Amino acid sequence: MELSLSFLVLVITASTVNSQVEWDRVTTLVGADIYFKNIVQETMQEVERRGWWNLKFNEDITQTFGEVLYDWHANGTVTYTNGFLVSIQQLEAIFTRGTLFKSTMPDNSTAMIANVMGELIMRDAKIGFDAIVEFIHENTPQRYTGIFNHNGIVFEVSIQKNLLTNELSTSVSLKSLPAGSGNRMVYMPANNVTEVLSRVYVPSNNWNGVRDWGSYVFGPIIKNVSNNHIDFPQFCLGCLR
Q1: For the domain that residue 177 is a member of, what is the CATH number?
Q2: So what's the pLDDT on residue 21?
Q3: Which residue numbers in the chain have pLDDT < 70?
Q4: Are strands 10-14 and 90-104 parallel, antiparallel or unpaired?
Q5: Which long-range contacts (CB under 8 A, 24 or more apart) does 144-147 make?
Q6: How many domains does the chain have?
């Protein structure tokens, strides 16, 4: 399957800093929105340097099907393998909030935690597969390629700092994977077999593969960037918002 990478534009949208903590309502993280923007930007630059096609699926997806198309009864299984990101049109980083709060640690001590959160959105992300079709009572599998376009993949990003130990922790979790109204897998070559496949394909089957990008690709890079490249925001007592 050929790789087709579209031009990438990083759009940064920052909302008003929402820094809240019960013990002092005028405590705020200074420049948390800019910090989040810089973290995401440097992370995505590193992902691009490694190659977007390295965002792969670790597991195959297998579906059974039984459909009738123009009096033709199609029964069998299809396995989607070698899943990877073919292209994306745009990246968007949205800062959502910067907060400070008390947290009870494993040793029952109390520490203040500073938390910067936001969303990483991948607009028009096309995921490609090799599709292997096996019909019941047929010995020879048929092979196709398929591409599915997700309108907007949303990851939630959190960067936390323990203000007692200065330890940083990060998490990246998949928040939503919309299929888009009327979207279908596009197959090559196209024929009556792929028409059946496009009817039964379930876009939510992509969840685990895309989720792993956050856990195994974006997460470790964000952790490295936040620990070694970009300083965590300072907090200010009594500052005006």
Answers
A1: 3.15.10.50
A2: 39
A3: 1-27, 237-241
A4: parallel
A5: 144/187, 144/188, 144/189, 144/193, 144/194, 144/197, 145/1, 145/187, 145/188, 146/80, 146/185, 146/186, 146/187, 146/188, 146/194, 146/197, 146/201, 147/86, 147/185, 147/186
A6: 1
Six-digit token string for 74: 């199609």
Terminal Cα distance for the chain, rounded? 51
Provide CB contacts within 8 A for 201, sequence distance 6+: 63, 146, 148, 184, 185
Owning domain of residue 33: 10-233
Residue 106 counted as domain residue: yes
